[in-house]
Amino acid sequence: MATGTAGRGFLRPLLFINFIMYITILGLAGWSLDKLIDGESHRHLGGRNTSTGYLVIFSLMTGAVGACSVLAGLLHTRAWRSDSLASAISSALVSWALTALSFGLACKHINLGNRGRHLRTLEAFIIILTFTQLLYLILLHAGIISSRYGPGYRNYGTDYGAMSHEAQKDSTTTEPPDA
After folding, report:
1. Which domain covers residue 48, as residue numbers?
2. How many separate domains does the chain show?
3. Which residues span the membrane (predicted)?
4. Is residue 33 included in any domain, yes or no?
5. Long-range CB contacts (< 8 A, 24+ apart) of 83-89?
6. Which pTM does this prediction carry?
7. Does residue 1 lie in a domain region?
8. Is the pLDDT assigned to residue 5 strictly greater than 70?
9. pLDDT, tens digit, for every residue of 136-176?
10. What Å distances lie between residue 97 and 12, 52, 140, CA to CA?
């Protein structure tokens, strides 16, 4: 196995699972928001407690940002470079923060009770996804620490400035032209 590719075997299935779960959260939260707007919350959502609206809105944000985070992670597994690792980590961190907020709202929603089966399913997906997204974030950070699990932050010898390092060295060591 080549150096730095051990993490790919862990990341791809986890990204697939997270993507399916984020899309499911988007579907359930979108359906629940539609029922809340139509005023059908008592019939379909099992009544309404005070945290239902907040749970649905935060779940929609979590699903949208999480799905985009998974796409950034898929691009990273394809490129497998340190610059794609940085973008995957930053989007995964924002996604996990929103998922953790939704997790807190789901816990409050469970505590208040009076919820239907669709909202119970949404709560279950959010709770499971909080831990799978955290596992994904830990695996990405393992890529920084060890080159076995990811590309790490290394200098690949590429210079992005107007002048390369050697050109700068040469320009400082040469004598000025005779005038």
Report:
1. 6-173
2. 1
3. 12-33, 53-73, 85-105, 125-145
4. yes
5. 84/151, 85/140, 85/143, 85/144, 85/150, 85/151, 85/152, 85/153, 88/140, 89/137, 89/140, 89/141, 89/144
6. 0.77
7. no
8. no
9. 999 888 876 666 656 655 545 555 444 445 545 555 555 55
10. 21, 20, 15
